[in-house]
Amino acid sequence: MESEVLPIEGIDYVEIYVGNAKQASYFYQNGFGFTPIAFAGPETGVKDKTSYLMQQGDIRLLLTTSLNPDHPISRFVLTHGDGVADIALRVKDTEWTYKEAIKRGAKGIRAPTSLKDEHGVLKGSAISAYGDTVHTFIERDEYNGVFAPGFVPIKGNGEPVGLQRVDHVVANVEEGKMDYWVEFYGKVFGFSQLISFDDKDISTEYSALRSKVMRNPSGTVKFPINEPAKGKRKSQIQEYLDYFKGAGVQHLAISTDNLIATVSRLQQRGIEFLNTPDSYYAELPKRVGGISERIDDLKKLRILVDKDEKGYMLQIFTKPLQDRPTLFFELIQRRGSESFGKGNFKALFESIEQEQAKRGNL
Questions:
Q1: 20 to 30 A Cα–Cα from 15, which one of 128, 170, 264, 289?
Q2: Phi, psi angle pair for 197, to nearest 5°
Q3: What residues make up the domain containing 32?
Q4: Is residue 1 in some structural domain?
Q5: Beta 83-90 vs 35-40: how paired, if at all?
Q6: Which of 104, 127, 153 corresponds to the end of one domain?
Q7: Is the same domain home to 98 and 147?
Q8: Cα separations (Å) of 103 from 96, 98, 142, 327?
Q9: For residue 158, is it within any domain?
């Protein structure tokens, strides 16, 4: 039986642990158009780490690095490489949410705490999720500062490319663990299953995966969860698990209102995307019917299209954002559709397998 839904308002920020936050901030600023808006570090009274808060639209990325080799953040980066450590969720009452989550079986990482400065009180707590990922519950109603105590505003000049909000956050978990985490989000958060795909839906000649999508009732938080399935060769999910050394966030899907314009700008800035074969576009009109965009424009940029009974959607995937083939971005524009691109899985997987083959991992 599903639990009563925890009143999660949405994703507050996504924290990425990195080897060098200053350099990473330049990448996300000059590559993806995020603006640095706040900083924390020794200069602001935070002695053991530095953080840069990057923003575009409603998306906030917190890039954090440790200044101490024995720090847990350093150990995270040594083990996993740069990767998502915290998917922070905004709530009205962090103490109640934390206690309720623990009661339902979550493992506590940080009991409710209050941080104060001249801008008010910020309350937070945290629970464990898959791998070394955590969910912080953030309560902001009594805080008016730039982000959190210990942070100061900084002036950045990122040129936005039209990224609006986090559409969904995708987890890769070990084989046989998908249903465990589906049950976790159902039991602890009260999320419901939106859709599921099995290895008949998501497979190529070589590899396959299974996936289920959990979400809150308002749809402001959507968590697809993938696990590898048996195939002739190593699946992209298993490759991720091998390089990340365990379960973790595979990609952030970020929405835009004009994907063609966004991708054009990003390509000019040197952001690399997965390739799609020309044959995909020859079959596209027959598969999706009438769409507003010109097929030639989509083909030029290698944008994918899928549809469901509510409309259609455009999507494209970047190559990995760091040297390990782990975290990447999906960019998505929804024109009514609530799908996750099932019709594109074969083309997408074949593109990923081409990259795997270059690395000698297929």
A1: 264
A2: -130, 140
A3: 10-153
A4: no
A5: unpaired
A6: 153
A7: yes
A8: 10, 9, 26, 32
A9: no
